[in-house]
Structure formats: structure tokens, C-alpha cells
Amino acid sequence: MSRIVSLSEAASIGIHSMVLIARTNQKMNVTRIAEETSSSRHHVAKVLQRLVKEGFLRSNRGPSGGFTMKMEPGEITLLEIYEAIEGRIEIPDCTMSSPVCPFEKCIMNNVVAKLGEEFRDYLNGQTVADLLK
To answer: Which of 46, 89, 116, 130 has the most crowded Cβ, counting Cβ within 10 A?
Structure first.
């Protein structure tokens, strides 16, 4: 099935993991997060290390280790998490990615750009704290 806008598995793991970690006052380890998100332990570990590198989480190693929030949940938007994992959202001017258009007006009415902007604005308007309610 074709999708116009979708989240990658990595972005989904990142967002869900951040909410799970923010919900608890305890450290959460990769195994528990992988179980709760029905994801590969290896993939969760890779995504969480990226979020540590970007400054959203703290990581403690060892048998009693795990991840904790480094920033307040209200200070982290879903867009920041998404872009930390996927890179900056690029919104194309043209669905054909063509520098020259043979038409005077976009025959798609710029719907892809509008959807991309709406998606970005939604992610930017939601914080991790909003998802804890």
C-alpha cells in the first residue's frame, strides 16, 4: 500500500520511546522499551543512542542501567525527535522535483507541499509532555 506521509520505523521508535521514558521516574532499558513497542532490541538501541547523542536522553550502562530524560518533556517537540533521527524535513516545491514546469499552474495544486507543511507543523506543535496526558 502506498503512503503519502508516513513515519519510518526509527522515527516511530524514537517518539514512542521518549514518551515511555518520560512517563516513568525510573531508568528504562532497551529490552523493556523493545517489548513495549514490539520492536527489535537492536533497532531500539540504535535509535536511543542517537537521542542520547542529540542531548534528549541520558544513558547509564550496566545491569541496573537504562535511559532517563535529560531535558524536560515540555521542552521537546515531536519535530525535534523526528529530525534528530530522520534529518530535516524537506518540503518540495514540485512533486516532479523539476526546475522547469511545462504548466502555468501546478496540476497537483501543491498538495504534497501542503501535506508536508501540515505534517511538520503538527509535529512542531506537539511536545512529549502533551503525550503524557
So the answer is: 116
